[in-house]
């Protein structure tokens, strides 16, 4: 699953990101309710973990805004508030489940899986750019009908490049898409992922699709 984590506590956010990744999931983490709302509206996630007590836009406001816009991504609230009224309020706003901190990580994984199984199936989205095709439902990438095996990070980067095919995608955009945190200047991390992705997508073909725009970012371009 691709899971969006909206949690302002630094240690817990890092712990959740690490644990979910080690469990085989792709994780995007942000500490801001505003950013969480933006990501949930503009990107596709399989589940959302949302802290209730956030600075700025609170968790309940995020839930309400998403549901009012018809975004039905399964959503689990994490909070230190454990009263019955608090739980009822979260569920009434549209959350699918509720866990009180502190919690056991294996139980969180079990609840995420159960929540995903209960969710109504959604139509798979796909992108095509020349000979390249990407399917978000099956997480399958092909070039000239030949399947390409990508890591979760490589898949996410290619998704953004294909969504903006023909347009320059900056390193900052790639960083926020991949990790959901403010740009930290580690340009080499993105460069390494792009290099691996380019080897897999362009190797063995006469026409390269992924191009570097010096000082600006990258672009996926087909003739």
Automatic annotation (TrEMBL):
Residues with the 4-aspartylphosphate modification: 51
DNA-binding region as annotated in the record: 124-222
Stored SMART domains: REC, Trans_reg_C
UniProt keyword annotation of Transmembrane present: no
Domain Response regulatory residues, every copy: 2-116
Molecular-function GO term, any one: phosphorelay response regulator activity
InterPro entries hit by this protein: CheY-like_superfamily, OmpR/PhoB-type_DNA-bd, Sig_transdc_resp-reg_receiver, WalR-like, WH-like_DNA-bd_sf
Full protein name: Response regulator transcription factor
Domain of life assignment: Bacteria
Keywords: DNA-binding, Phosphoprotein, Transcription, Transcription regulation, Two-component regulatory system
Biological processes per GO annotation: regulation of DNA-templated transcription
PANTHER family, per database record: REGULATOR OF RPOS
UniProt keyword annotation of Transcription present: yes
GO cellular component: cytosol; protein-DNA complex
Domain OmpR/PhoB-type positions: 124-222
CDD domains: trans_reg_C
């Amino acid at each position: 699953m691709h899971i969006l984590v909206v949690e302002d506590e630094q240690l817990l956010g890092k712990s959740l990101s690490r644990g979910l990744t080690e469990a085989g999931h792709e994780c995007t983490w942000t500490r801001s309710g505003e950013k969480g709302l933006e990501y949930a509206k503009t990107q596709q996630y399989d589940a959302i973990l949302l802290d209730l007590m956030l600075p700025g836009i609170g968790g309940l406001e995020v839930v309400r805004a998403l549901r009012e816009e018809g975004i039905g991504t399964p959503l689990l609230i994490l909070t230190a508030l454990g009263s019955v009224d608090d739980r009822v309020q979260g569920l009434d706003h549209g959350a699918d489940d509720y866990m009180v901190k502190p919690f056991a990580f294996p139980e969180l994984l079990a609840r995420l899986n159960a929540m995903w199984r209960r969710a109504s199936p959604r139509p798979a989205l796909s992108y095509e750019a020349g000979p390249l095709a990407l399917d978000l439902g099956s997480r399958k990438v092909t070039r000239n009908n030949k399947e390409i095996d990508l890591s979760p990070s490589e898949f996410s980067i290619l998704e953004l490049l294909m969504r903006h095919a023909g347009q320059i995608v900056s390193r900052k955009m790639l960083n926020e898409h991949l990790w959901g945190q403010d740009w930290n200047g580690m340009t080499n991390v993105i460069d390494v992922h792009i290099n691996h992705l380019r080897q897999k997508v362009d190797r063995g073909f006469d026409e390269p699709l992924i191009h570097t725009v010096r000082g600006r970012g990258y672009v996926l371009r087909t003739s």
